[in-house]
Amino acid sequence: MSPALPEPGAPRPEPVRTRVTNLYEGLLRDVTGDHGGTGTIRAHRAYPGAGAGAPVAFIDLVVLPPGTSIGPHQHADDEETYVILSGRGRMTLDGEEFTVRAGDVVPNRPHGEHGLANDGDEDITLLVFEVGPLGGAG
């Protein structure tokens, strides 16, 4: 016997989403003192990269509540890009400090120093993409 068809106009059931996760449903974890930064931020590694065979090392969603920071730090032979999705704060990039806001894309070059502080009164939400190692390019 075949399943009954829904009545015209009846809501259809949601399809099962087996490979989809939702960042707002318990995936963010607390990270205290990230790279020597201040306070506790929240983060989720959306794409771990390990074993994927692609040059993308990881993609993280990060939330910096007011008064927290990712401390200034350096990476090796990779490029890490910050994409500011919401909020505003103070970015440190190779000794220069400047304001970043929603929509800003900040590439952090190989071996460069970078950090981000939330000196505002709302969360900063950003995506962090790391590509590498680059094999001396950059």
UniProtKB/TrEMBL annotation:
<dbReference type="GO" id="GO:0046872">
    <property type="term" value="F:metal ion binding"/>
</dbReference>
<feature type="domain" description="Cupin type-2">
    <location>
        <begin position="61"/>
        <end position="128"/>
    </location>
</feature>
<dbReference type="InterPro" id="IPR013096">
    <property type="entry name" value="Cupin_2"/>
</dbReference>
<dbReference type="InterPro" id="IPR051610">
    <property type="entry name" value="GPI/OXD"/>
</dbReference>
<keyword id="KW-0479">Metal-binding</keyword>
<protein>
    <recommendedName>
        <fullName>Cupin type-2 domain-containing protein</fullName>
    </recommendedName>
</protein>
<dbReference type="InterPro" id="IPR014710">
    <property type="entry name" value="RmlC-like_jellyroll"/>
</dbReference>
<dbReference type="InterPro" id="IPR011051">
    <property type="entry name" value="RmlC_Cupin_sf"/>
</dbReference>
<dbReference type="Pfam" id="PF07883">
    <property type="entry name" value="Cupin_2"/>
</dbReference>
